């Protein structure tokens, strides 16, 4: 067992700093969040001085809260539209199409897509604000309808398009390397048999990259469900129409000061993420 | 073995240090004789940014001057100014988190309306408890009503930084085009709506701007719902009860509907993330006819030199009128006209290491000389009567506020529940602007109110 020959005590000494860091910055805050999730803890006011334990009331209230159900629905829409469908499809399409083009063009396109991914969120949000705002927004000017306030009139559509643009790079990179693993001889055979592009993708390529698709979808789903950038674009508005869960939790915790209630909502978001992850893992295992 | 013990000890120390962060408090005279002191003042002001004038004053006048005064007494004082340039809600969150964790500056500028929540949370304490004796000749110069801004539950927590009043600002150029008088003074809501109907004929002009929706935050409550509600006869909080879906509240929501459903206001603007700033820009570009705002708008928004939406011809182009009650005599206290007021307060952190010196610094910040200097040649309703008497003379708008508006104004209830009630009111206006009927919105408001403050506190 002791392949490194350190002995138990030394081994413990070596991992202790890491464990302490994990404990202080991960485990303790997580447990703390669970704890304040069962209290009526607030940022200010009497409940800040003397929080009471209210048990599962917060969770029950959250599930009954129309703002929460609205938010769950919007988050599902956001994840499905921008990650599961949008980033996946566009990322794969880019990877597939870029296989055969000249290397110069391929690198340029990949570079541009990557740029959208690596720019800081605040910078990107500012740029999109300039594109989508009313009166002088670039999109409005281009389409000849400067009066359209895209972020107000089509908040969720704007967010979905934004997030597809923002996050496609990861899917593209992952699929590019996945496609490299498809044996060229099989593609050649399919071509000689007269298979259409769609038939080739479905029957030759997909069986090879199924694991990659699932892994990719799992990762981008979780990232998108936890993404806070929508706050920078719409702040959840207008009138809660783009209030995805991370934004709702932030606003409940820090704008309304309801730390306990917001913690309970975070717990529900975590449970939701776990459920999604379990479904994907099960799918992956079935393949194996 | 030894190493494990060392790591274990380190870990325990690290964890324990997190719990020992609470500084001492209690003895009001602690460090009173110190020869070397450090004080930090925290404000939502930043040089070259938000509230730049206040930041410059603190940085370039207050700090050198106070340091010099202390030096003359043989005390080496280091005064730090912690700058912020955030939205009011974000700033409040930051201050609350600072105080909660036992940190934060020694003197903190907050909005008077947050006083109750912070006090109820024990994050700030009555001034007497923090610094002991608070005798000061300056109190005589601060009017009773303004002092109230720094009080909660009958106890004094801090020193107010001045006050303001709300009026209807209107664009005289647009009024002339629409055939409306330059000395306009509506006597009822109907008069305002009638003027709006006339302004509607002008191309590219939004007749009325009455803040609505949640995106504008407290600006919706303060420059929209509360002045309107005061015009229906009862304030939002009275005799220990919050006003529910009363006929008055329904009238207010009805007013919103007549403005935003009747083409007199711009519903989209109310929902934009930066809608309030945009309404300022539009007003300065002669594209909004009438706008309800505090005198801040006159001093800092359309101000010709340093305003955020400068109007070179402000003095001739911008008119102002008292906010009318729904009908003559229907306002709170039977008034014909109404207003709402607020203002900032400076409080002393209960955890300060130098309570007596912090109080000395606070007195200095509120001395006549310092207050006059803070205005940098402009006019404003300061906390001090003697300063106001000198500086307001040259400014007709602020003289109007001091003489006509302050006598009829009301203050918001400084209770911890207020922000939740305010949020519910904002949501109700958002619903109406989005197309719900006033009755529906009022019902939803009542539900939200009951949830926020409890059935027993809704009247």
Describe this structure in words.
The complex is a heterodimer of chains A (288) and B (459). Chain A is an all-alpha fold and 288 residues long. Chain A has a single domain (58-287), classed as MetI-like (MetI-like fold, Orthogonal Bundle), CATH 1.10.3720. Chain A has 14 helices and no strands. Chain A has helices spanning 8-37, 46-49, 57-64, 66-98, 103-118, 121-132, 138-143, 150-153, 155-179, 184-192, 197-225, 229-234, 245-255, 259-287. The mean pLDDT of chain A is 88. Chain B has 2 domains: 30-160 and 343-374, Periplasmic binding protein-like II (D-Maltodextrin-Binding Protein, domain 2, 3-Layer(aba) Sandwich), CATH 3.40.190.10; 166-341 and 413-454, Periplasmic binding protein-like II (D-Maltodextrin-Binding Protein, domain 2, 3-Layer(aba) Sandwich). Chain B is built from 20 helices and 16 strands. In chain B, the strands form 5 sheets. In chain B, strands 2-1-3-15-6 form a 5-stranded mixed sheet. Chain B is globular. The chains are: A mainly alpha (288), B alpha/beta (459). The interface between A and B is medium-sized, with 31 and 38 residues.
CATH topology of the largest domain in chain B: D-Maltodextrin-Binding Protein, domain 2
Which stretches of chain B are low in confidence, meaning pLDDT under 50 for 5 or more residues running? 9-24
The portion of residues assigned to helices of chain B is 40-55%
The number of distinct helices of chain A, counting runs of at least 4 residues, comes to: 14
Second rung of CATH, namely the architecture of the largest domain in chain B = 3-Layer(aba) Sandwich
How far do the termini of chain A sit from each other? 29 Å
Going across the major beta sheet of chain B, what is the strand order? 2-1-3-15-6
Shape of chain A: globular
Shape of chain B: globular
Class derived from helix and strand content of chain B: alpha/beta
Evaluate the radius of gyration of chain A. Answer: 24 Å
Q: If classified by CATH, what would the architecture of chain A be?
A: Orthogonal Bundle
| CATH class wording of the largest domain in chain B | Alpha Beta
- Poorly predicted spans of chain A: none
Chain pair sharing the greatest interface: A-B, 31 and 38 residues
* Chain-averaged pLDDT of chain A: 88
